[in-house]
Amino acid sequence: MRRSNQSVFNEYVPQGTINTASAYTSTELHAKLGHFDQLAIQVIIDNVTGSGGFDLYIEHSADGRNFVTTKSVATPPPVGSGDVSITALTASAVNLDFGFNNGTTPFLGYVRFRMFFSNGTTAAHVRVFVTQRDQGG
Q1: Which of 100, 113, 91 is nearest to 33 (CA)?
Q2: What is the pLDDT of residue 79?
Q3: Among 6, 10, 16, 61, whose Cα sits 20 to 30 Å from the Cα of 30?
Q4: What domains can you pick out in the chain, each with its CATH number?
C-alpha cells in the first residue's frame, strides 16, 4: 500500500559535486525516508552544464550519523553503479530515471540519498521524488 509520495530534493547541484564531495538529502528527512519498507525513487535533471553522468545511492544508519550504502560497494561509492544511475546527461533535454528498494533488505532507522556527478565539470538542477510503500505485517 502506498503510504507517502513526496519531493525530497530540489536544488541546483554545482560543479565539483563528485563521489568524494557528494550532495545529500536534508537531515530533516532521514527518519521519514526510513519509515517504510519500500522506496521508489524518480530523479529529474535539467539545466545541465558540462557532460557526464549522475548517481544516487541509498544510504542508511541506525544512529542517524554513521551511514552506509544499501549496496555492497566501496567508500566513496563508484561512478555508474548507483541505485539510480544516468550514464550520460543531455544538456538540451530533461533527463529522467528511476530506481527502487523493494524491501528485501530492511532499512536501518534513518535513510538518506547520496548524489553526485561522474566528473567535476558537471552542474545541474536535480529533483528527487520518492514514493514509499509498506509491505504490511
Answers
A1: 113
A2: 84
A3: 16
A4: 2-133 (2.60.120.260)
